[in-house]
Design goal:
By secondary structure, the chain is of the alpha+beta class. The protein folds into four domains: 92 residues, 3-Layer(aba) Sandwich (Rossmann fold); 56 residues, Dna Ligase, domain 1, CATH 3.30.1490; 128 residues, ATP-grasp fold, B domain (D-amino Acid Aminotransferase, Chain A, domain 1, 2-Layer Sandwich); 95 residues, Glycinamide Ribonucleotide Synthetase, Chain A, domain 4, CATH 3.90.600.10. 31% of the residues lie in helices and 26% in strands. Strands 3-2-1-4-5 form a five-stranded parallel beta sheet, sandwiched between helices. It has a five-stranded antiparallel beta sheet with strand order 12-15-18-22-19. α1 packs parallel to α10 and α7 runs antiparallel to α8. It is globular and about 60 Å long. The model has no long low-confidence stretch (mean pLDDT 96). Bound molecules: adenosine monophosphate and glycine (GLY). The site of adenosine monophosphate has 14 residues, from β7, β8 and β17. Glycine binds next to loops.
């Protein structure tokens, strides 16, 4: 079986690593990939937003299964295009992916069916948004409606900050058309967790729980990032809570989509805010989380290709997942300046020493191979992922590996997994 994975982050390296373990796979490609992925799959130089070129490649090579990593491909309708040409592809189609691509769409859907989420207003006019803010006051959360690579959300402690955030989105239009609308939300408090599930549009099959670390600095300080580290399982998601999330959030959501004629197939990811018994949905994503995907794939023992095929063929009800009982932790190593402007092209040292690491794996994100060296090429550069007999051991194992890796300006959080330890 020939498989193509689309994307170039730590998420895609973890997916490629897992897919490579499937006995069904004979050839594996990744577009565009990175230096780490290049050791496991043939790299294809096509960007995730070039839907037509990707589909033509899949047709020429006779690809049997395409796995979509990033949201951009989904929101551009890659799945619709591939399916229209008779190709098998894992991921939601364009209409289904609106759950992530439009915050207004997902908030209105949740409100309609009573899925708990922060109170909100949606605005298409800058002045109206700002006078609403002056009325409601702070703290408040301001969000661009569309995709903004995790940067379209501002958690504002003052009205001035919130007014400036709206001005940035709708006045300066720093996120382009993603800022045609803003969503203004009540601030939720509690502990966040990532709840990912496979779904074929009828059945919901949850993955193990996980938790991300969104802020750039230790103790959740500084601006939001794509994610600075993750671990699985997340003790805050008890088995009872997981069952409630399936019954009260995931199933009603895919059922409402189906009622509208939209069959959601792929990964549905609910970002949760948990406060005692109260669970709110902060956002939906239409794909695997990154970095959450890294500890999750490290722990998954089932054949990922088999599960993805069951999703496509709508026979997920017959599938169950097997997990390594050991917790896993991923520490993201990022470039100096990230999530703002950062430099690239630094030589990364220490990777060879970790090539035969037994309890972990260094997943690559923003890297590129140049002759004999691996260079930095992105904001998030590596995801150092390790398992241990306890969360404590997994954290120790991951940071021991982190200590071996270096490049000028490398930054990372030193408190990944602390919340799980504290429980
Ligand atoms: P989103 O892209 O909607 O997930 O927002 C990114 C991050 O902003 C979330 O993971 C939260 O940390 C934070 N956030 C978003 N909405 C809220 C909210 N209503 N209350 C508190 N924090 C929020
Ligand atoms: N780690 C958060 C996300 O993938 O959206």
């Amino acid at each position: 079986m020939k498989v193509l994975v689309i994307g170039s982050g730590g998420r895609e390296h973890a997916l490629v690593w897992k897919i490579r373990q499937s006995p069904q796979v004979t050839q594996l490609y990744c577009a565009p990939g990175n230096a780490g992925i290049g050791t496991l799959a043939e790299l294809v130089d096509i960007a995730p937003d070039n839907v037509v070129a990707l589909r033509q490649f899949a047709q020429q090579e006779g690809i049997d299964l395409t796995v979509v990593g990033p949201e951009i491909s989904l929101s551009l309708g890659l799945v619709d295009d591939f399916e229209a040409h008779g190709l098998r592809v894992f991921g939601p189609n364009r209409q289904a992916a609106q759950l992530e691509a439009s915050k207004a769409f997902s908030k209105e859907l949740m409100q309609q069916i009573g899925v708990p989420t922060a109170a909100f207003g949606i605005f298409t006019d800058l002045d109206e948004a700002q006078s609403y803010l002056r009325k409601t006051g702070a703290p408040v959360v301001v969000k661009a409606d569309g995709l903004a690579a995790g940067k379209g959300v501002s958690v504002c402690t003052t009205v001035e900050e919130a007014l400036a955030a709206v001005e940035k989105i709708m006045g300066e239009r720093v996120f382009g058309d993603a800022g045609n609308r803003v969503v203004i939300e009540e601030l939720l408090t509690g502990e966040e967790a990532s709840f990912l599930a496979f779904t074929d549009g009828t059945t919901v099959l949850p993955l193990a729980s996980s938790q991300d670390h969104k802020r750039i600095f230790d103790h959740d300080c500084g601006p939001n990032t794509g994610g600075m580290g993750a671990y699985s399982p997340a003790p805050v998601v008890t088995p009872e809570l997981a069952e409630r999330v399936v019954q009260e959030i995931m199933l009603p959501t895919i059922q409402e989509l189906r009622r509208r004629g939209i069959i959601y197939k792929g990964i549905l990811y609910a970002g949760l805010m948990i406060d005692g018994d109260r669970v709110n949905v902060v956002e939906f994503n239409a794909r695997f989380g990154d970095p959450e995907c890294q500890p999750l794939m490290f722990r998954l023992q089932s054949d990922l290709v088999e599960v993805m095929e069951a999703v496509i063929d709508e026979r997920l009800a017959k599938v169950s997942l097997v997990w390594d009982a050991r917790p896993a932790v991923c520490v993201v190593l990022a470039a100096e300046g990230y999530p703002g402007t950062y430099t690239t092209g630094h030589i990364i040292s220490g990777l060879e020493a970790l090539q035969s690491w037994k309890n972990g794996m260094v997943f690559h994100a923003g890297t590129v191979r140049a002759q004999d060296a691996v260079l930095t090429k992105g904001g998030r550069v590596l995801g150092v992922t390790a398992a241990g007999t306890s969360i404590h051991d997994a954290i120790a194992e991951a940071y021991t590996a982190v200590d071996k890796i270096a490049w000028p300006g490398m930054q990372y959080r030193r408190d990944i997994g602390q919340r799980a330890l504290n429980r």
